[in-house]
Amino acid sequence: MPRNSQVPFNKYELYNQAVQSAAEDVKFYNKIYKKIRKSKKPMILREDFCGAGAISCEWVKLDKRFKSCGLDLDREPMDYGRKHYISALNNDQQMRIALIKKDVLSPGLPVADIAIAVNFSYFFFKKREVLKRYFDNVYKSLNQEGLFVVDIFGGTQCTDAIEDKTKHKNFTYYWDQKNFDPVTNEAYFEIHFGYKGKKYEGVFSYDWRMWSVPEIREIMLEVGFQDTRVYWEGNDKTGNGNGVFSVVKKGESCESWIAYVVGIK
Asked: pTM to 2 decimals?
């Protein structure tokens, strides 16, 4: 490559590096399933709101029997995933993965042992009845001993207009909370990237309702899940999240926290 050539700005690759940890995430899903189901292996994972399908790709790498399916309505990130992520899998792994354009509210979702809705994607549903409809759809699609895994975040900082900045090796990641409405619990966020001396504003945007852990657990139980568990992120020595999630009965009141809520069928 010539010295003065420039690597083009690639929003999906930067998002993957800054936001996702797919290889570690799938190990966590596999671990909690085997813990809850007494060492039984989950064979099929479905990634709702899959985007480019990075998690689906990592799942089929874990075990030669594992299959995955990603659902999304936006063809662009799925096409990117097919070109850059699925193409990097070996032939056998490619046979065990599919990315499908489908509305998660539509009937007949592909069956799974684990269904996930992560990166807070389901916050897109602002009305309780719509979120409940989605959760009910997930419940019906799960195999008999299936799990439904969602992530969630909160904390006092989530009510502030604030821009966080994280420096990576070749770029800077910005998480920008524009506003928060306490009457509706709605908030608007944007992701910016600083790359090659330029700041790319509003690369991704999110108009969400900030759901709470009790609300999520209550809706899961209402649609038929037998139980729920909360996995709370621990802290490192500096007080920041350490990426290790453990079952808790009580959380910690802090500026910012991340957790998983698991519905057990």
From this structure: 0.92
